Amino acid sequence: MTLRDVIYDIGGGLVKDFRAVQTGGPSGGCLGEEFLDTPIDYENLAAVGSIMGSGGLIILDKDTCIVDTAKYFLSFTQAESCGKCVPCRVGTKHLVQILERICQGKAELADLARLEKLAGAIKGGSLCGLGQTAPNPVLSSLKYFRDEFLAHVKDKRCPAAVCRDLVVYRIIKEKCTGCQRCVQVCPTQAISGPRSEPHNLDEEKCIKCRSCYEICRFDAIAGDAIVIES
């Protein structure tokens, strides 16, 4: 049975466009659309840089930032490290720090090489399975979604409008119907306006929680890149 069989035939597919699938849990690999016909077994998943793990799948759509996802999984495995061996205890911490810099628009191209080199050292030097597989999300993401890493590092832009330091939200007046769904979910009351009229968004109050972006049915909330000087 392939990934496509499970995701689309059994799972019913996605509401939004498919972006990636994470197999094997936090220590698994992040695979793109070109791997949807990969059979779900130990050998085939290992061959493309992922693992079978306990058989779990996490499906990501187009509004998911791959860099942020890699950081999320690395943060988990770093917190779970028992601390016995240096490669896992110290190495995963540095991986997370580099990913944080990338998500903040503070990284440089050399950081991508550092990620790959450090991830390889952690895989080869860790004592147990946690450390040996912890770099998988980073290595697979760098291999198959390098364009997203480059967008964060070179262009200081998050293509999925997820990384808070690289995005600012605004309301597209021409598309806003004034349905007030965004007003209802905004935790800081940054959005205002009468019903049935285009709303306003106060950037000073906005905490970039993304709630308005997710709930809008009319694509009236835009996430624009912030220009960060190198």
Number of domains: 2
Distance linking N and C termini: 47 Å
What is the percentage of strand-forming residues? 5-15%
* Annotated CATH architecture of the largest domain: Up-down Bundle
Descriptors:
alpha+beta; de novo design (two linked rop proteins); Alpha-Beta Plaits; three-stranded antiparallel sheet; two-stranded antiparallel ribbon
Model description:
This protein has 230 residues and is α+β, with helices and mostly antiparallel strands. The protein folds into 2 domains: 3-153, de novo design (two linked rop proteins) (Up-down Bundle); 164-225, Alpha-Beta Plaits (2-Layer Sandwich). The chain has 10 helices and 7 strands. It has a 3-stranded antiparallel β-sheet. Strand 5 and strand 6 form a beta hairpin. Helix 3 (66-80) runs antiparallel to helix 4 and helix 5 packs across helix 7. The longest helix is centred in the middle third of the chain and has 18 residues, at 86-103. It is globular and about 60 Å long.
Short description, anyone?
By secondary structure, this protein is α+β, with helices and mostly antiparallel strands. The protein is built from ten helices and seven strands.
Layout of strands and helices, then pairs:
Blueprint (H helix, E strand, L loop, with lengths): L2 H8 L7 E6 L6 E2 L10 H6 L9 E5 L4 H15 L5 H18 L5 H17 L3 H5 L2 H9 L1 H8 L13 E5 L9 H5 L5 E2 L7 E2 L9 H5 L5 E5 L5
Antiparallel strand pairs: 1-2, 1-3, 4-7, 5-6
Helix pairs in contact: 3-4, 4-5, 5-7
